[in-house]
Specification:
Oligomer: single chain
Strand order of the largest sheet: 1-2
Structural class: alpha+beta
Number of strands: 6
Number of helices: 4
Largest sheet: 2 strands, antiparallel
Length: 136
């Protein structure tokens, strides 16, 4: 009898271990999928003046991030500020028909767009569905 009880416990422990491992794999897949979805949403919501900002948004596997140096100024907004303050800075933007001009120039600033925050909010709304699709 003792052997039967022991083998039942071992069997239960093995099944629980497999289940726990499946949960861990599902959680990792859910995190990666949520990160990918967030990056795609943020890129779609980002301002598209040149497309550079949207092109720098990447999934990190544990979240998403924008690589453009001005991403925070677009997300949170920026007041008027000087640009082209370096020695002999020449500013030129052929898309807007601006320049070439020897800096510095006062940039008028821009309103906040909150493309990253909105993407995160949308991922959070979809999160339970993402988790359900990846769990055993």
């Amino acid at each position: 009898m003792a052997d039967v009880g022991f083998s039942t416990r071992v069997q239960w422990r093995d099944e629980f271990g497999r289940f726990a491992q499946a949960l861990d794999v599902g959680a990792q897949r859910s995190q990666a999928e949520a990160s990918d979805v967030g990056a795609a949403l943020a890129a779609a919501l980002a301002p598209k003046r040149s497309g550079f900002l949207a092109g720098t948004i990447r999934s990190t596997g544990a979240g998403f991030a924008a690589g453009a140096g001005y991403a925070a100024a677009q997300e949170e907004g920026a007041g008027p500020h000087l640009i082209g303050t370096g020695f002999d800075a020449v500013l030129y933007n052929p898309t807007d028909g601006f320049g070439p001009v020897l800096g510095p120039v006062v940039h008028p600033g821009n309103p906040a767009t909150h493309f990253m925050r909105d993407a995160l909010r949308m991922v959070n709304q979809r999160l339970m569905g993402i988790i359900r699709s990846n769990m055993p």
